[in-house]
Amino acid sequence: MQNFNYFQPTDIRFGWGRCREIPEAVSKYGKRCLLVTGSTGSSRSILYDRIKQGMQSTSVMAAHFDGIIPNPTTDCVTAGAEMARSHQADVILGFGGGSSMDAAKAIAVEATHPGTCWDYLFFRDQAPTEKTLPVIAVTTTSGTGSHVTQVGVVTNPAERCKSALYNPVIFPKVAIIDPELMLTVPEHITAATGFDAFTHAFESYIHCNATPYTTLLAEQALRLIVKNLPLAVEDGSNRDARAALAWADTLAGLCIANAGVTMPHGIGMAMSGLFPHIAHGQSLAVTYPEFVRFTSPSAIPHFAFLARLFNPELVKVSDDHAARQAGVEMEIFLKKINLWLSLESLKVPQDELPELAKASLVLPDYKNNPRIPSQDDISEILNQCYKR
Question: d(Cα 36, Cα 34) in Å, to the nearest integer?
Answer without folding.
Answer: 6
